[in-house]
Amino acid sequence: MINVRDQITPGQLAFLVVQTQIGVGLLMLPSQVHTAAQGDAWISVLIAGLLVQFFIVVLWCLGRRFPSLTLYDYLPALLGRYIGKLVHLVYAAYFILVSSYIIINFAKTIRDWVLIETPQWIVIGMMTSVCIYLVRESLRTIARFFVLVFFCNIALIIIVSCAYLHVNFLYILPVGQAGIWKITKGVHETMAALAGYEILLICYPFVKGGSVAKIKAVVFANIFSTLLYAFAVFTSLIVFSPQELKLLPQPLLYMVKALGFKLFERLDLYFLSLWMVVATTSAIGYFFMASKGVANLFRQQSNHRKAVPYTAALVFIIALIIQDPLLIDTIGKILSITGYVFIIGIPFVLLMISVLFNIHEARGRPR
Amino acid sequence: MRTGLILFATCFLAATLLSGCWDQQLLKDIRIVDASGLDLDPEGKLQATSSVLEVSGSQSGNKSLDEIQTGKGNTTRQLRDILDRKISGIYSASKLRVTLMGEALARQGIYPYLDVYYRDPSSALNARIAVVEGTAHDILTFKKPGTKLVGEYFNKLISSAERRTIIPAVNLQLICPPMLDPGDAFALPYISKDTTSPSIYGIALFSGDKMTGTLKSEDSMLYLLMADKLAKTASVTLKINEEGSQNPEKYIAIDIQKLKRKLKVNVQNNRNIKVTLDLKLKIAVVEYAKDHLNDKRNLTQLDKKLSEELTRRAQVITQKMLQAKHDGFGIGRRVMAYYPNTWKKLHWLEDYPKVEFVPKVTVKIVKHGIMN
């Protein structure tokens, strides 16, 4: 049923999840969480990571009941034909919108920092074409590429570490200054950045091996992403005073911009070049989920490749239309709230239905 | 296969034809500014003085030239436009090395004038920044010794003083967090105009973004030691004896080898803030005409005398800091971190001068060169 060429190992699944999680959020996250949780932002990130682990378990339980089917395949079996189709459609739309949102933010950051004069459609177009190029391939190829570019993350960590030359740990004291309510708000801000693990809903059947190996892979992936985010937020907190952090939308870039060594200056440009790759993989992850959804909308269990051009066209057009910074903000807020519905709400309902009515997969078919 | 080929061709063409077309900045079109000065004139207008480089790719020797341009306006960014009209090429501050501020401007507050540096993505945030006595225009147009470029000259002048722990190692970005933080403050190099050349006078103390005082170079060194910021070397000459057959015998020159600082903030009765600053210095004697540094009694006596002298100086410095409302050791930050409830009740700008400093310097001679 699943093409052998599409199968990936649990290890590759881990990289797939990490790369989908870490994306444009990396740059924006520190200031967003700081606005909500102030000096305790790093605690918010860690709590959010912990919360995501529970969500992952829910997704995994759902996937385990249908070991060779994707979300799109078992939706009709659980919700009935019409509602199933409708939810399917909404999911595909959600993934398309997230892809666009990633690309918009990517283009915006590039415009603000490097290519000031370059028209937006060029940057958006280039990003989209890179996505098309890779998503047209099998899942295995995508996963292998993700493994390859994982090392960009390590390089990013090294660059950010340079900022530890000038830090003031007093900025995070006293721990717990913000209070529980503000920390909770910070958790909410972080959840959107940590999103990406929902790729498990789509990829579960493509992974070789037992279900335990799969959840291990995803849990480890999430631990890595959480720690990387926590590191980024923590570093921003101790480099900038709280008053300055409020003024900076992308503190990570800003802090490395000021660093200069004998041999090279403007570390932010190196950082951006690496981050571009990381952001692209995140977009590719969502692109894959969207294409799969669009393809399955028309024919059950069809390959995602055929749907790629149509999905890409939609993503490109949406990204072009949404240019107003306030609108982008609003969409970001909407996505972070609806994210709960799509990532945990619906899967949880599906799991309940599946358990209560004892619907699970038997010999490749939902029963 | 065919679609792949088309895609490849498109990408290839796009990459070669489109890369950087809009955002390229050719060196032949721009004029690099390596030093700029900002002043307030008596009427309150802003005056900018920039040293603009002439990068000529000519074969006839590496003769780099710079010219000084000035203009008057209201904001830093506006002045860029004004100067842009005066020079041949596009004004580019992306390789700025040094920004100098006139004292009058520094006392008014510097943040509004620096905003464009923090906002522009291509600006050089690692440019050094200093305050000058009088106006920056005078210093920049001063006939400098040697043939160095203006920006390079001031950059070297400042960086060598940084190595000797006379001034803090700061740049545009490093001063920003303390500038905006209510519980912290920064100090900038202070350059004065000698008769023959510009020289480092010491540091300018800031409170918020306004300059409020100065410390001369010997004091600024001790200030930096108290702030736990020993750079490569630090040396100072102190008067230690009243008697002596010749004048140099009254003095001792020491080199600070190792520094251990303990800073403790105590809040009593929820209001009185007491700061104990314990400074342990290990020093080398580099000049002492009276000699006999192998004698143990002599050494302990010297240690004691030096400790007393430096403690006295430290007290003077902390007094000056309080007068200038300059919270250079980040006392406010510490109160915020360890006594958050007290902090909420304080109005730091008014309460800071009431802080009680108890500095104590302990000196130990560990080296005395290759002679006793």
Automatic annotation (TrEMBL), chain A:
<keyword id="KW-1133">Transmembrane helix</keyword>
<keyword id="KW-0812">Transmembrane</keyword>
<protein>
    <submittedName>
        <fullName>Spore gernimation protein</fullName>
    </submittedName>
</protein>
<keyword id="KW-0472">Membrane</keyword>
<dbReference type="GO" id="GO:0009847">
    <property type="term" value="P:spore germination"/>
</dbReference>
<feature type="transmembrane region" description="Helical">
    <location>
        <begin position="187"/>
        <end position="207"/>
    </location>
</feature>
<feature type="transmembrane region" description="Helical">
    <location>
        <begin position="334"/>
        <end position="357"/>
    </location>
</feature>
<dbReference type="GO" id="GO:0016020">
    <property type="term" value="C:membrane"/>
</dbReference>
<dbReference type="Pfam" id="PF03845">
    <property type="entry name" value="Spore_permease"/>
</dbReference>
<keyword id="KW-0813">Transport</keyword>
<feature type="transmembrane region" description="Helical">
    <location>
        <begin position="41"/>
        <end position="62"/>
    </location>
</feature>
<feature type="transmembrane region" description="Helical">
    <location>
        <begin position="118"/>
        <end position="135"/>
    </location>
</feature>
<feature type="transmembrane region" description="Helical">
    <location>
        <begin position="142"/>
        <end position="167"/>
    </location>
</feature>
<feature type="transmembrane region" description="Helical">
    <location>
        <begin position="310"/>
        <end position="328"/>
    </location>
</feature>
<keyword id="KW-0309">Germination</keyword>
<comment type="similarity">
    <text>Belongs to the amino acid-polyamine-organocation (APC) superfamily. Spore germination protein (SGP) (TC 2.A.3.9) family.</text>
</comment>
<feature type="transmembrane region" description="Helical">
    <location>
        <begin position="82"/>
        <end position="106"/>
    </location>
</feature>
<feature type="transmembrane region" description="Helical">
    <location>
        <begin position="12"/>
        <end position="29"/>
    </location>
</feature>
<dbReference type="InterPro" id="IPR004761">
    <property type="entry name" value="Spore_GerAB"/>
</dbReference>
<feature type="transmembrane region" description="Helical">
    <location>
        <begin position="269"/>
        <end position="289"/>
    </location>
</feature>
<feature type="transmembrane region" description="Helical">
    <location>
        <begin position="219"/>
        <end position="240"/>
    </location>
</feature>
